Every structure is written in C-alpha cells, then in structure tokens.
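Page 47, continued from p. 46.
Same chain as before, 481 aa.
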Amino acid sequence: MGKPALISPADLPTTLGALVASGYRARSVKVEIQENLLEKLRSASVTLPGIVGFEETVGPAVERALLAGHDFVLLGERGQGKTRLIRSLINLLDEWSPHVTGCQISDEPTAPICVACIALASELGDQLPISWRHRSERYGEKLATPDTSVGDLIGDIDPIKVAEGRSLGDPETIHYGLIPRTNRGIFAINELPDLVERIQVALLNILEERDIQVRGYNLRLPLDMLVVASANPEDYTNRGRIITPLKDRFGAEIRTHYPLDLQLEIELIKQEAAIQAVIPQHMLDVVARFTSLVRESSYVDQRSGVSARFSIACVEELSGAALRRAAINGDSEPVVRIGDLEDVVASLRGKVEFEVSQEGSEVEILTLLARQATAASWRALLGGQSTRVFLTNLVDWFDAGNTLATSDLMSSASILEAIGPMEGVGPLLTATEAQMAESAGLVASCLEFAAEGLWLTRRIDKDQQDGTSTYGSSVTEVPEH
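Result:
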C-alpha cells in the first residue's frame, strides 16, 4: 500500500481568483529553493537534514549550486549518501504549492503551460479550480537502468486516448513520463551513466531549453524543475558514461566522500543502523576503525569503494548476535561483545569488492582487518594510565593458571563468574563506556574486550576450537592473527 495522500489545510484558496487575492506570488522552483535556503542560512537552521559528515565539504558545495540556480551531479563511490542528500532537498521547497486541479503536470495556476489547462483557464477565468501539493509530493526519482526508455522519462502516445477517437496530432493523446509529471518540483536520476546514450540525448532539451519533445509532436512544454543526478566515478563504472553534451548542461559536479573521521562514521552508524541490542561505545569504535581499514586495504578494489552500508550492516549483525544470545540464555539485556565480530565477518564479504588475486581469501582478509581494528581501538581506549592496574591484574590472573572461555552463546553471568571481583574494573568501564549505564552485560563486554586486546598485543594466549575461545597465560608460540 502507498502512503496516504496528505490533506492540505482547509484555509488555502481553492480558485484562481482567491489565490491571486491572497497575495500569492508565482516563483520558479529554483527561485523558491534559493529564497528558502537563504532564509535557513540567515537563521542558522539545518539546510540538509539527516546528512552526516558533509557539513564542511559537500554541503557548502550543494548550497552554492542551489544559490546559483544550477542543476548538478553528485559524483562518488557507492554508499556515500548521494541519494539521501538529494532527497533532503525537498525540505527547501515551500510546504504547500498550488496547481491546477487534475493537471497531469501540476501546472502553475497563474501561467498554465499544457493545452488542457490553458483552455480551462480561458473558459473559467478566476473560477479555475486550485489544489495543493505537499512538498513531499513534488519529488520524482528514477534509478537509471539500461532498459529505461524515452517514454518512461519523457512520455509517449497513449493508445487508449487514440482509440477513443482523438487525432494523433492532438497533444492530449500524450501520456506524460516521470519528468513532466515532476514539473514544478525536483527530479533525480540515480546512476545516470547507466542510461544508454540515446536516452541521455533526450534529456538535453530538458536541462538547457527546459522543454520536451514527444514522438515528433510540434509541442513546446517549458518545464520548471531542478534536475539532480548521481553517478559513480567513470573509472569505476564501466557500464556507461555521461555523454559530454549532457555533462556540460549540468551547472555543477560535486564530489562526495565517506566520513572523514571515526566520530563521523560512528554518528552515521547510530543514525542509520536498526539497533535492537546494547552496542557498547568500544564496539562502535571498533566497527568504525574496521570500516576505515577495509576502505584503505590494498586487497580491496578501491575503485568500487566500501559503502557506509558495510558498517551499518556490521552493527545490525552484531545486534542480531546479541539478541540471539540473550534469547537462548534468558538474559533480560542483549549486549554486543567483541567475540561477536569475528562471527559476523563472513556475512559482510558480499559488501566488498576484492582484487581478483584475493579470490577465496575474502573472509581471512576481513578477519585480519577486524583484529587490526580491535587492537587499534584497544590501544586507543585502554592504553592510558587509568587502566594499567586492571590490565596488570588481569594478566597476573591468567598467569596464575586461570582461563576465560567465551563463545557466541556464553552468558554475561558466566564471564563475570569466571573472572570474579578484580581491582580496576571501575576505571576500565570509565575508559571504555563513560557515557553508558553500568550493567552486568556491559561489564562482561568490557572484560572480553580487555582480554581480546591482551591477546592481540601478545600478552596472553587464545585457543579457538569449535566456536569457543579460551584465553589463558602467554606462551612462546603465539597464533598468527
């Protein structure tokens, strides 16, 4: 089922005469966006809501393009938030916009452009009926695919109207495509290079002359819209290219990017991931570092990029692992632990394009990078003086012959019972989870993280068999990791 239509406020004018009497001022879409954007900038309001990491880079470039009245292309690897950014542009439109009631292309009431509305306005004058569209209804989007036709985008002859007896020369026999139906709104084309070149040619008039041609009709339909496209870099997507004349008609080409630092990556994960378990801060830090290492790895095809969906999917899988463990053990609070990460790595390989030479080694590479991320996070969070007492006590505990067994089903209570009371747990929690409420699950997660880091820094040993990891005293031979 589709979304229910929004109902416009009852006090809005319903005829052309009442609209003009209300002081309505017709504006082009680009002027409307420009004026609303300037108002937001003057009041220090958020201009592109829901966009993380672009505030100082992509955001200003988009704002400059909009203020210049330019159509533009967002160029970047997959999963950089291009579509999300484009969809956020509707917040720069007026909340409600008038149009001629029943018009296929939502004609401007004071200056209709389609044949039917021109005739109706001439006949009814000030009694021309007016309806109102919410800003969310003024957005059109098409994912470019090789089978997209001119009819899909621009329009075609409607055989039903012809069968009803209308002449083929009658403009009212046209069934308008997606672009004309987004008249007086924002139209987005995702993955523009995937459109075959002959279809891209059909867009030339729309971007420059702002009119359309359908099946040789002598029809000039001056559309009013902002056109935005997204594309992957041409050196990556060999499926097609943006033809030079079309590229020249876009006023700006704006390069997007992945989050530039760990904190932005973490903010993006929190915003986008459907998290149903407790995700400790140290685990978010590990996942953010893991994603960064994958993006930088020489084993990964850097031309394809590593989508933000990689880190989002990783956190959601971790959440699922914690929910499963809590359900099986009857725990009231599912909490993610570092041991869950290695278990979910295999499910992430489909989100990464590896170099051809690495075929068959994908899981091993991701496991290695996950361990490197864990070690880096461990050093960053637990490498200070505040946790030295606890880590020394934990190493001594292992050296005394004690072991700690963990698995994807091991309950938090079992981990706490195995280690028992130990001096320095308070500073450990402060160093890793200063902003989170203490709980048994959280303490167990931090203890496992501490033990994993000690193994990765070669201060204790770990034996892995049948899904169980057993930490113990250090030995001469340390497993490769």
